[in-house]
Each structure stands twice: as structure tokens, then as C-alpha cells.
Amino acid sequence: MSEVFLRDSFLNGAGWGDAAVAPLPGDASTRSYARLTRGGKTAMLMHQPQAAETATASASASESERRALGYNAVARLAGADCGRFAAVADYLRGRGLAAPKIYAADLPRGLAIIEDFGDALFADVLKDGACEEELYKAAVEILARLHAQPAPAELPGGFPLHAYDQLALLAETDLLTEWFLPLALGRQATEAELAEHRSLWRAALDGIAAAKPVFVHRDYHAQNLIWMPQRSGLGRVGLIDFQDAVAGSPAYDLISLLEDARRDVSPAIAERATRHYLDAMRAQGTPLDEARFRHEMAVMAAQRNAKIVGIFARLYKRDGKARYLAFLPRVWRHLERDLTHPSLAALRGWYDRVIPAALRTLPRLEKETT
């Protein structure tokens, strides 16, 4: 049966068969979305092709079992599991946050009709001149609410909230050597370069992934937050694209927000937002050791930006999505700044020696494509 037939059958069964279907622009994932309109009401149709991604692994899977299943299992990604999206949405709503309601779902086929939060992505609202500080403070208040208690072992429905462990974090930093380094240097990384890179990252990450884990959205930035000022309090921030949530460092989502790969956040706004988060954590009775937290911020920032360099290079090389190359200069600026932290000096030395700054702008690629 065709995907269109399955989609239409699902919509008919859910009572949305007569709705107008307007596809929305795609993103870096294999999911697709369309807005449904029927009688003045709207909803979102989410479709996750079930054969598009590799399998995930159980919470108890060993390292070798995860490696045998592939990258999604190693990196703790949800893959094509729509059930996890529904479970995370239920968890977030249970914490008093604005995650879409699930109106109907055919989870085995990767189809769901979910609540429509509108089009006011933070990224777009900020382009229109909205108060940046107001939106970023609202966003960090969401994080403080999520971090008020430890990460749950399970999500609704019995889905485990996987640990964002060192194996997953190192698999992500490997993306830079696997995908970006060949673009920059015109060759694969040597075994010695790979081994040193992993060793340095292992040392930098030691102890961070396991220290008092909290719920981590994992992709918390201006393209995945929707501004809904007609609502009140924490409900003003609509949360989407959270299916890859894990249990990890409280610094991770804050860094994802403030070192955005797609838009610049001024240092002043980033510092005020960080200060607001720390104050909110203290006010709710869950204060953080600020020195330790800022150390975690530096390491998690460097890890995330190294990962994104690799992902964007992969989106170009493997998937033909050249538009992601335009974001790489910003991500490298973030990474270079992150690596100035004293605890990351050895990693900074590796990057300066193996991928000098002059090659991070991909001059080889520019010559090949002109």
C-alpha cells in the first residue's frame, strides 16, 4: 500500500478525512509534518517513515549490543519510534509544560495527529523584533521546571529515558572526524588522530554524563520553541521535536539554547539568561554549584558544537543538503570559544594541529564547487 493511501485511511479513521492537508517545509530529520484544516480547526499531521532510520536499543543493552544495532542505538536516538514522541509529550504535559496533545495515532505506521501550536517559532518571532530577553528568560524557566527533580527512569507507557552516557557523547564527537575532517583535509582521519581525539574527549567528559542527571530535551533551540503569548506562565512556550530526550547534564539544553547553530545570541543575552536560570534553580530550592555548572556548560557546549559540525557535514555529504554548510562558520565560532576553557586546552591543541583555522572554512570544498 502507498504512503498516501495509508495516510488517507488514517485521517478518515481519525475523523479528519475531509481536512485540507498543507505540507510544511522539511528539516534535518526524516519526519514530515502537514497542517490539517477542517471547519476552522487545525491540527498537525506528523509522519515518521518506519523504515527511514536504524533501530534503537533497550535500556539494558550492552555496549557491544548497541554498536551492533548501529548509530541510533549507540547515540541513544529515538529513530522511527513515534511511541517515544507520545511518551515524552505525556511526560512534559505532566510537568505542567506545553507539549502537543496527541489526538489520534497509528504508532506502528508512524502517524499521529497532534495539537497545532501555530507558526510563531522563537526564531521567526525574534526576526520580527520581539523582546529577545523576554523569550530567552521564558525558555530557561522551562528548563528550571524540568530540572526541579531528577530525570525519571521511565516515561509514560514504560519507555525508558535512556542515559546520555559517555558512549553516546563520544559517538557524537566522532561525527566531526568521520564527516567534517575529510571535507576539510581531503583525506580520512588516521587511526592515531581518531584515537587521540576520542581519548581527549573521554577525559573531558569524565564524570559529567553521570552527575545528577535531569531530563534533557536534546534539541532545545529557537527552531523548536513556539511563542504563545496568549497563554500564561510556562504555557507560553510550546515544545516540539523532543522525541530524542535523554537523561543527562542540566547544562546541555541551556547550551543548546544559547549557542544556537542557526542564529546569533548576544553574549549579554546569553549571560542574563544563564543568570536567570541559576536564580530560578535557587528560588525553587534546587540550587546548583555555579562553578561546577559553568564548567559543565563549557564541556557540553564544546561537545554539542563538535557534534553539530559533524552532523552538518554529513547532511551535506550524505544527504545532499548543502544549505547546512552555511551554518558551519557560526558553529565553529562557538566551538573555538568553548575550547578556550582551561579544562579543554588539550582538545583545543588537537583541533589547532589537525584542523587549522584556515581549513575550517572548507577552502577545498569551495574550489571543488566553483
Poorly predicted spans? none
Largest sheet: 5 strands, antiparallel
SS-based structural class?
alpha+beta
Order of helices and strands: HEEEHHHEEHHEEHHEEEEHHHHHH
Total DSSP E strands: 11
Number of helices: 14
> Judging from the principal axes of the Cα atoms, what is the shape?
globular
* Rg: 21 Å
Strand order of the largest sheet: 1-2-3-5-4
Distance from first to last alpha carbon: 43 Å
Query: What is the percent of helical residues?
Result: 40-55%
Integer average pLDDT: 93
Beta-strand percent range: 5-15%
A few lines on this structure:
By secondary structure, this protein is an alpha+beta fold. It is 47% helix and 12% strand. The protein is built from 14 helices and eleven strands.
